[in-house]
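Exercise 7. Given the components listed, write out the predicted structure of the assembled complex. Treat all entries as one system.
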Amino acid sequence: MKRLLLTEPRPSGSVPRLCLVALAVTSVAPGQPAATPKSSALIDLTGYWVSVVSEDWRWRMVTPAKGDYASIPINLAAEKLADAWDPAKDEAAGEQCRSYGAPAIMRVPGRIHITWRDDRTLQVDTDAGRQTRLFHFDDWKAPAGPPAWQGDSMAQWEIPRAATAAAGSEAGPKFGDLKVVTTHLRPGYLRKNGVPYSGQTILTEYWDISTERYLSGTHKNEQWLTITTVVHDPVYLQQEWITSLNFKKESDGSKWDPEPCSSRW
Amino acid sequence: MNYKTARFQVARVLLISIGLSIAAPAWAEVDLSGEWADKYHEDWPERLPGPDIGDYIGLPLNASARSKADSWESSVQTLPERQCIPHPRPYSLRGPADLHIWPEPDPVTGRPLAWKIFGTFGRATQTIWMDGRPHPSKYAPHTFAGFSTGIWEGDMLTIYTTHIKMGYLRRNGVPSSDQATVTEHWVRHGDILTVTTVVEDPVYLTEPLVHSDNWRLDLHLQRFATPCEPVVEVARKPGAVPHYLPGTNPFLNEVSTTYNLPLEAVRGGAETMYPEYRKKLKDKYVAPAKCIRYCCGWINLLGPDSVTGKLECDGSEAKAPGEAKAP
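Answer.
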C-alpha cells in the first residue's frame, strides 16, 4: 500500500491513515500528560552524528574549480551568477556563510549534534560553520523578520502503519521518519563555488535511521542516518535537485570541532 | 432497518475498519512497484560517463584493492567474454539504473512472496525473497545479483544480499570480492525512492562502504533493457588480457593533476571519508583555475534550457587521455 502523505490527494473513501495514527499517538488516558512531538517520537535522532563522505567527494571535501556545476540541474541564470562568483566580495560583504544555509549545510563535511530544545522543537547544531537549525512541530508560526540562512523549518513525524499498534507504548521496535520543510531562506550557495539558490527555494528533507544488523565485528548494529533532500528553486534550477546524505552515529561529542564559516574553504 | 439501526451498523463497520487498519500485518507497508527514473544528482561524471582511471576517491579501500585496480586496463572490457558482464550488486545501483519494480504474489495468500527489481545494467534482475527463507549454503553458486532476502522495518524495506560474484565497486576496476555482502534500505517518500547501500567486503574494504541513491516515479519511463551480444571488437592473440603490470600504469596520476588533489586523497582509504581529513587538505589544496571537463554535468544532455537558453559551460567539455570506458 502506498503511504499517503499529508500533502497528497487521497482516493475518495479512503481512511486518512496518518490522522488515525495521530489519534493513536496523541490520545490521552485520564491522568496522563498530553503527548508531545518529543514524547511521541518514534525514532531517536538525538546525539552526535558524523558525515561520511563517500559521494560527491570532489565537490564537498574541497572547494571545486570555478565553473564546476556537475550534477546540479542549474539553468542559465544560475550559471551566469556562479560564473561571477567572487569569494573576496562575499568576505567584504560579511557573507561568508552563503554556502552554509539550510539547502547546503548538511553537505558540508562535519558533525551534527541533535537535541530537543523543548517538547516541540528539535535543534540541529553543526560544527562546520557553527550553524543552528530549529525544526518546529505542530502549529508553530514563524515570527516576522528577514530571511535567514537556516530559514523557517516545519517538521512532522511520518509514522508507518506497522508502528500504530505500538504507538504510545515503550514496547517493540519503533519506526518512522522525520519530514522537514524549510522556507523563508536567505539566498545563498548550493555549492561552495557559487552555485546559487534563491529566496524562493523550498527545501524538503526526509530523515531516516537504519540499524546495520547484518554487519560484522565492531560495525554490527551501527546506526546510520540518511537525509533525502529535495531542493525546489523556481529561479535557478531546471528541475528539483534530489540528493541524499549519510551520517554515522557517534557515541559522544569528543570529536566536535566547531569552526567558522569560510567563503573559500 | 430503521435509522438508529442503520447508524449502529455504519458505526460498527467504521470501528472494524479502523481496527483492521491499525492492526494490519506488516508484510507490505509500502508499494514499491512501478517505473523509477534514476536521478544522477551526485557524482554524475563517475556514474554516467564513467570514472577516471585511478580515481578511488571516497572509497575505504585496502592495499590489495588498490593494487588490483591499478592493473586495470579499460580495453579489458572489449574482450568478448567480458562485454556482457552485468553490474554486480555492490555497484549496480550506482551505475545507470532506471528501475522497474514489481511484486511476485504468493498464489495462495496473495502476499508478496518476492519483490523483483529490473533495470540494472546487464539484466542482473534481483529477486528479494520476503517469505523468510534462509540464505543458501556458502557453497551455493554465486551470481551477479546475488541471493537476497528482505524484511520490512516499518516503511523501510531492508534487503540483505549474499552469494555475489566477484566484480567491482566502481567502473574503473576497483574490485569487489565474492565474499562481499550488501545491505540495502529502501524507503519511499511520496514519488521519491531512496536506497541506502552498505557494502561489507573483508577482502578489499577496511570498513563498510555506505552510499545512497535516489529515483523518482516516472509513468513515462522508457525501459533500458541493455541487450548484449558479444562480438570481436579488437583482434588479439588468443589468451591475451589487457592489463598493466605493477608500477606501469601511466594514468594513475591523472586525477591528481587534473583536479589539483593530493595523490594520497585520490588513492582513497577510510580516513579520506571523514571531516578530519578535510582539515588535513586545507593547506595542501588549491582549486584549479577553472573547470575543464564535465562542467555542466548531466544537464547539457537535455538540450537547451527552454526557458533561459543553453548553458554556456557546454563548450568547456574536454576529454582527458585515458578516460575510462563506460561498459
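Discussion: The longest strand of chain A covers residues 202-212. Chain A touches chain B through 81 residues (CB under 8 Å).
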